Amino acid sequence: MHKKLSAFFAVLLCALISGFAKNDSDFTQVLLPVEVFVGDQAEIRCTFRSAIDFFPGEEHVDRKELANPFVGLEDTFSVVRSQLIREDMQYSLSVYIIPWKTGIIEFPTFNLNKALGIVNEDGTDEATFSISFEPIEIKSIVEKTGNSQMMPPVPPIIVPGTTYVIFGLVVLAVIILIFLLRFLLKFQQIRRSWHNYLMSRAYKKNADAAVKKIKKLNKNTKISDAEFCQELQAIVRAYLEFRFDRRFTAISSGAVRQVFKQICADDIPDDIEEAVEDISAMFVRTDYIRYAHDSIDSQLYPPSEHQALLVKDERKTLSNQIFKAISSFEKSDGLGGEK
């Protein structure tokens, strides 16, 4: 008999606790704002007291977010967010919604424990703690404005000074478009000019390098005349090959003038005629120094004209001839050199 009474009181206590929030004296609901119109955000706030701990094991937590308790009613209203706030044994539940239809909204009863995700230690759901919101009324925008007529179209408001800014942007866009079209029309010309500029820089660098090497060669007094002539030819041939894009490193000394005639289409310009002659003479003279040593020709008289040796200051003379020739090539209009 004692056990039956204990079980009866336990069931009665659970029923009282479960229904605690639904007691009108303890469960209060307010709607903020009081009047809600379609498309406005509203808060349904209810407060209640309960001995149930909706924050089990979370002593320092006094606020929790809920899962959407009204799934499936998105056509009528959307739930922005839901939260439960604890103050001792007092709880405050707030659900923020945006209604999409006018009229009375009926809210289905939902289990607060389930919305909070509370489960027992064995993994089963906690006991049901039902929450039932009172219906609320949603009004139309017509009631809010009091005007059922469509408003006439209103022209856009223009900030003072905006017209000048827009006009200036239009003018700037036209100018940019004109320059773009001109650039596209002259693209090939611009490309060719840029290519010529790069080539003139490369030619100048090539010429400067050749002059620098010849000056350094002149300062080397330890090499023989034959070695000097060989080095001088190598420097000049490398310069000419880059400058005129011809195989000057592989042609004979006697063919130098003929190659220049091919470069100039059989008409060597007057401004480089002397330079071509000096280059050809230098190749012939240096070849004789290199290859005529101990030959019969080198034994002829007078020795100053036939011996396979450079006369006094001839190294400097040959170098100056080359400097002059290089300068003529780089300044020539007919060869496209640097002006």
Can you give a write-up of this model?
By secondary structure, the chain is α+β, with helices and mostly antiparallel strands. Helix content is 46%, strand content 15%. The chain is built from ten helices and ten strands. The strands form three sheets. It has a five-stranded antiparallel sheet, with no helix packed on it. Helix 5 packs antiparallel against helix 10 (314-331), helix 6 packs antiparallel against helix 8 (270-291) and helix 8 (270-291) packs antiparallel against helix 10. The protein is elongated. The termini are far apart. 14% of the residues are buried.
SSE topology sketch:
Elements: H1 2-18, E1 28-32, E2 36-37, E3 42-49, E4 63-65, E5 77-87, E6 90-99, E7 103-105, E8 110-111, H2 112-116, E9 130-131, E10 136-139, H3 141-145, H4 162-185, H5 187-219, H6 225-244, H7 256-263, H8 270-291, H9 303-306, H10 314-331
Parallel strand pairs: 2-10
Antiparallel strand pairs: 1-3, 3-6, 4-5, 5-6, 7-10, 8-9
Helix pairs in contact: 5-6, 5-10, 6-8, 8-10
Give the structure's gist in a few sentences.
The protein has helices spanning 2-18, 112-116, 141-145, 162-185, 187-219, 225-244, 256-263, 270-291, 303-306, 314-331; strands at 28-32, 36-37, 42-49, 63-65, 77-87, 90-99, 103-105, 110-111, 130-131, 136-139.
